[in-house]
Design a protein that fits this description.
Layout (H helix, E strand, L loop, with lengths): L17 E8 L4 E5 L4 E15 L2 E5 L3 E5 L5 E16 L12 E4 L2 H12 L9 H15 L9 E3 L4 H12 L7 H7 L4 H12 L3 H18 L4 H7 L5 H12 L6 H6 L6
Antiparallel strand pairs: 1-6, 2-6, 3-4, 3-5, 3-6, 4-8, 5-7
Helix pairs in contact: 1-2, 4-5, 7-8
Length: 268
């Protein structure tokens, strides 16, 4: 019988459709760029992570997960202590699985299923209750796909000049350097920079930086910081300006964001 490991590579050949890794990560832990043979669902039962691929950066609070198809190179950054569950899924386990990287809404049911899956033997029974739990997880993943335009999904440019600048801004979202400054850093004219950025990401530089600040704000709110503190630390001039932008992006005030995510859907 296989014993549990905290190394992802140990789960790639498990003779089951789903293999579950459980691990704890310290604040500021960085998992460097890597990929896996299997698709995976990354879900932090507590704490906030950022997951970055060549094309997009995701921020995942406890009510979200990230789906990563097999072979996609990615890195992970922990914002504070993170309790992680990673489900490694055989690429052909279910044709309904997402075909690209994206966030998933983790419903209360899916959360409990993921936790219970981690309590089962790695080589769980292919008949009966254990198999049905894993099958239901696949059903729930298929229903959990989130709109790709979520403010927690930040497109990343492939141009190395732009990518380097984006990394700098993500390291310090509150920085007030303007577009002309970053165009000069990229050794581009303002107009060339603006056009290239929109072409590479699908949004303007201003919109992109706004999404970075909002994603950082979600991370800070999840750690228990007050709305006022978060507003100033991510670069807003006032809590009211931050609250307006946050509600525009997420449809709810920052003070209610996490409670809204955990509310059951209303009957229709």
């Amino acid at each position: 019988m296989m014993t549990r490991s905290t190394h992802g590579e140990d789960y790639q050949k498990v003779n089951r459709p789903i293999a579950v890794l459980i691990d704890e990560y310290s604040p500021d832990h960085v998992d460097p760029p890597h990929s896996h043979e299997r698709a995976q669902l990354l879900y932090a039962t507590s704490g906030v992570m950022s997951v970055i691929t060549d094309e997009v950066s995701f921020t995942i609070p406890p009510q979200r997960g990230v789906w990563m198809p097999a072979g996609v190179r990615h890195e992970a950054h922990c914002r504070g202590h993170v309790s992680l569950r990673t489900l490694y899924v055989e690429p052909d386990a279910d044709s309904r699985m997402p075909k690209r990287c994206q966030t998933l809404k983790i419903s209360p049911l899916l959360r409990e299923l993921i936790i219970e899956a981690g309590n089962l033997p790695i080589e769980y029974s292919l008949n009966g209750r254990e198999a049905r739990i894993m099958e239901l997880i696949l059903d729930e993943i298929a229903e959990a796909v989130e709109h790709p335009a979520s403010a927690l999904n930040i497109p990343m440019p492939k141009d190395p000049r732009l990518s380097r600048i984006c990394r700098k801004i993500m390291d310090d979202p509150a920085a007030e350097d303007d577009l002309d400054h970053w165009a000069a850093v990229a050794c581009m004219g303002r107009r060339t920079f603006t056009r290239a950025f929109r072409r590479e990401t699908g949004i303007t530089f201003s919109e992109w930086r706004q999404q970075v600040r909002l994603a950082e704000a979600v991370s800070m709110l999840a750690s228990g910081k007050s709305v006022t503190t978060v507003a100033y630390e991510v670069g807003y001039n006032s809590p009211s300006a931050f609250g307006t932008m946050f509600q525009r992006a997420f449809g709810t005030p920052p003070s209610q964001y996490f409670s809204q995510l955990t509310k059951p859907a209303a009957d229709t």
